[in-house]
Amino acid sequence: MSVNPQVGRLDHVRAPDQPLFTPRTPRIVAARRLHRRRDRDATGRFLAEGPQAVREALAAPGVLVELFGTPAGLDRYADLAGIAARAGVPVSGVTDDALAALTETVAPQGIVAVCARLDVSIGTALERRPRLVAALAEIRDPGNAGTVLRTADAAGAGAVVFAGDAVDPYNGKCVRSSAGSLFHLDVVRAADPAEVLAELRAAGLTVLAASGYGEADLDDLADSGGLARPTAWLFGSEAHGLPAELADAADARVRVPLHGRAESLNLAAAAAVCLYASARALRPGATRGAPESA
Questions:
Q1: Which residues, in sequence order, are CB contacts of 55 under 8 Å at separation 6+?
Q2: Could you give the CA distance from residue 128 to residue 205 in angstroms, rounded to a whole number?
Q3: Whole-model pTM?
Q4: Residue 178 contacts residue 48 (beta carbons within 8 Å)
Q5: pLDDT (tens digit, 9 = 90+) per residue, 32-90?
Q6: SS3 readout for the chain
């Protein structure tokens, strides 16, 4: 395999005599096991498929461990393969069947990466003094979790915390739903949601629990300047919401006002409304209604 350093593209995906990896090739067998959470936990690695995820993984130093692709995929995304090869990452051609074994989508995009997990402790995340944090307690749906990751990234959050018996953020559907945002912010996994809440508050963050039955109205809170300070939002599962003891321990329980006839918002939509309300209040120059101490 050779790389043209001037254009950063692979001139040759593989040598003519180099066979493509098949589903039985040991490295493919090992990578395929990463579909299972226990193997991700044991190895500290996960799979990221498609060019967007690979591009973002390459931008995070030391995260991308190995890159697989069909000849057509490596040719189509030769710039990414070239960057990986120059960084010393193994780049291997695979058969269509081998790629299908590594991916979970109906129409794979031709490349998939093995990546090192990148979560940090909550202490490390809070040392960076984030002004906006999303904490997901007991959330089980990987699509919702990945969408909240993506939304938190877009809203400028510094960290997303997966607390309690929550979905694995490195679940394939969660990784795909995050659209690369998994690689942009601090991801924290913590066993005890109550300890997470205590650490968030100790770090000086106002802790708000999103609840359809909250006493505080989000619009009123925003208008009064209640969001114009560093904030951590707590979100519970779509099926059961936040555990009562966790919601009661927050500084306020906040509901998103429903102005139409919809019964409720789903988790991802409610998280987007709350996080963007905070982002708007925290943006530079947003002083309207803010308390003097903010």
A1: 80, 180
A2: 13
A3: 0.88
A4: no
A5: 999 999 999 999 999 999 999 999 999 999 999 999 999 999 999 999 999 999 999 99
A6: CCEECCCCEECCCCCCCCCCECCCCHHHHHHHHHHCHHHHHHHCEEEEECHHHHHHHHHCCCCEEEEEECHHHHHHCHHHHHHHHHCCCCEEEECHHHHHHHCCCCCCCCEEEEEECCCECHHHHHHCCCCEEEEEECCCCHHHHHHHHHHHHHCCCCEEEEECCCCCCCCHHHHHHCCCHHHCCEEEEECCHHHHHHHHHHCCCEEEEECCCCCEEHHHHHHCCCCCCCEEEEECECCCECCHHHHHHCCEEEECCCCCCCCCCCHHHHHHHHHHHHHHHHCCCCCCCCCCCC
| Identity of residue 210 | A
Q: Rounded distance, CA 199 to CA 153, Å?
A: 21
Which pLDDT tens digit goes with each residue over 215-272?
999 999 999 999 999 999 999 988 888 999 999 999 999 999 999 999 889 999 999 9
Contact 253, 247 (CB under 8 A): yes
Tokens of 246: 């966790």
Structure tokens at 205: 């963050």
Q: Which of 206, 209, 250 is nearest to 225 (CA)?
A: 206
- Nearest to 34, CA basis, from 172, 187, 174, 183: 172
Structure tokens at 42: 């044991």
Q: pLDDT tens digits, residue range 127-149?
A: 999 999 999 999 999 999 999 99
